[in-house]
Amino acid sequence: MMYWTGGVHPLAAIIAAVVVSVMLYIMHRNHQKQEKNMIYWIEESRSQLIWQDEFDRQGGRTPTMEWITEYCFTRPGAVKDFPFGKEPMVMKVGGKMFALLSGQAISLKCDPVVAENLREQNEAITPGYHLNKKHWNSIRIDGSLSADEIRSMIDHSYDLVFKGLPKAVREKVRLTVG
What we know:
Helix content: 55-70%
Strand content: 15-25%
Organism: Paenibacillus nasutitermitis
Low-confidence stretches: none
Oligomer: single chain
Protein name: MmcQ/YjbR family DNA-binding protein
InterPro entries: YjbR (IPR007351), YjbR-like_sf (IPR038056), YjbR/MT2646/Rv2570-like (IPR058532)
Structural class: alpha+beta
Largest sheet: 6 strands, antiparallel
Mean pLDDT: 81
Transmembrane segments: 6-26
CATH architecture: Alpha-Beta Complex
Order of helices and strands: HHEEEEHEEHH
Number of domains: 1
CATH class: Alpha Beta
Strand order of the largest sheet: 1-2-3-4-6-5
Keywords: Membrane, Transmembrane, Transmembrane helix
């Protein structure tokens, strides 16, 4: 049997090296996540500036369906889908719907209290067509709403859906954007 006679025991040195390596790896991963989150928010801010510029050029007029479609695509991770045939075009994030576009109307998810208030304020906003009327609004694009109002409702819908996604899916969306 061998006895250790002094200094640091070799086994203790190996354990300390493993612990330090794990700690450095964790610090590295956290830094990568922070960096990717920063890139995500920089991209988000950039897209907002681009669309603010477009809104200013439109002079606050009601946007076209093409403008609305393009704006939906600026949302991080947004993809289009046609699960119901040719219409409506469905915009999704993380596999969940946040907008349905058909003809001259768009349906958007909405907080129930906000949804009621919006319906009371404008005749162009009605309970979601073929959707859960408590959580969805359908908006006629008829000139009664400005681009800023529509953009705000799209952002609200996207944010509700994005926040409702599982954490792993939210992280995946952020990683694909960055």
